[in-house]
Amino acid sequence: MTITRYTRPSPFRAPWLEVEDMNSRLHRLFGESSRREGAGAFGWSPTVSVQETSDGLLLTAEFPGMSIEDIEIEVENNVLSLHGEKKEEKEETDELRFHVRERGYGSFKRTFTLPRTVKTDKITAHMKDGVLFVQMPKAPEAKTRKIAIKSEN
């Protein structure tokens, strides 16, 4: 028979540390792998970056193992939406079983509110090696321009 010593929580312990402990326990319980692969609390979601250039915005999104047919892009009321589905690969057979499976699957929807300076009718997209590139040009009046200073002498 083993005896386990009970220790009372310290009254000097900060309350936010207990919340962090609970979060780390939940991550261990449900597996932190879903966070690494861009999965949120409700399933798989592609990882995204948005950069601004002098000509416009560039959104890049990672879609490993997906084809163009699996992804849809829409713009309505200056809101850009990416949605689609990453289908689960049925690789498991009687002779081949998974021991670790960290890849996420499922439908997703990501929305981005665009600034009014983006010309939504000129947005283009292309995909290369599982990375989607969405180019959103700025309206000419939104681009930086230099103003000449005149001398009054």
Number of helices: 2
Given as residue ranges, the uncertain stretches (5+ residues, pLDDT < 50) are 32-42
| Outline | elongated
What is the rounded Rg?
Answer: 24 Å
Q: Major sheet: order of its strands?
A: 3-4-9-8
- Average pLDDT confidence is 78
CATH architecture of one domain: Sandwich
Number of strands: 9
Distance between the termini: 100 Å
SSE succession:
HHEEEEEEEEE
Top-tier CATH class of one domain? Mainly Beta
Helix fraction?
A: 10-25%
Largest sheet: 4 strands, antiparallel
How much of the sequence is in beta strands? 25-35%
Structural class: alpha+beta
CATH topology of one domain: Immunoglobulin-like
Question: Care to describe what's here?
Answer:
The chain is α+β, with helices and mostly antiparallel strands and 153 residues long. The protein has a domain at 38-91 and 104-142: Sandwich (Immunoglobulin-like), CATH 2.60.40.790. It is 13% helix and 33% strand. It has helices at residues 15-30, 33-36; strands at 39-40, 43-44, 48-52, 56-62, 71-76, 79-86, 106-113, 124-128, 131-137. The strands form 3 sheets. A 4-stranded antiparallel beta sheet has the order 3-4-9-8, with no helix packed on it. A 3-stranded antiparallel beta sheet has the order 5-6-7, with no helix packed on it. It has a two-stranded antiparallel ribbon with strand order 1-2. The radius of gyration is 24 Å and the shape is elongated.
Topology:
Blueprint: H1 15-30, H2 33-36, E1 39-40, E2 43-44, E3 48-52, E4 56-62, E5 71-76, E6 79-86, E7 106-113, E8 124-128, E9 131-137
Antiparallel strand pairs: 1-2, 3-4, 4-9, 5-6, 6-7, 8-9
